[in-house]
Amino acid sequence: MVLSIIGTVAGVISAYFGYVAVRNELTRRRTRSEQPAEQPAQQPTPRGDGTYDVFVSYGPEDAEWVRTFAGRLGEKGLRVAYDEVVSRPGGIRVHTVEAAIRAATHGLLVFSPASVGNGWVDQEYAALMQRSIEDGVRFIPVVVGDVRLPEFAATRYFVDFRPAHDCAGYERRVDEIAEALRSLGE
Q: CATH second-level architecture of 45-184?
């Protein structure tokens, strides 16, 4: 388990520095070729292209919970992306999910025993956290099981569904997330 954590941290760090290097070079090129010298370079936009309001990352064992949760967000007028929504037969998973993350205005990760330590979810977490840090995209941790949040996620206010055993508690938390996503998208 320790090696898994070390590997995940090393992967996040290397992805971050690789992204920063490529982004800085692209920004430098764009600034030189597209903008007059007297104007400062524009700050990166804190939103995706607006195709989706939120991308949801989760462990495969939580798929049924996420389908219900995403459906409730959809009923509240939000456009929700997750792997089952964006996947197409013959598509390449990494490219499809990466494009959906880029197209989403914000990100949300369902933390559960099934998602913590899952290699694929770790990669999505790294991408969502990197966009949050670099581009100002909101990242909302959602806790549905007995887990300890990773350090970066623990710096965010999270929504805790563990005590939401009744329908009213569940709906209150869904409403809270929907309202936060709507107000952040304005």
A: 3-Layer(aba) Sandwich (3.40)
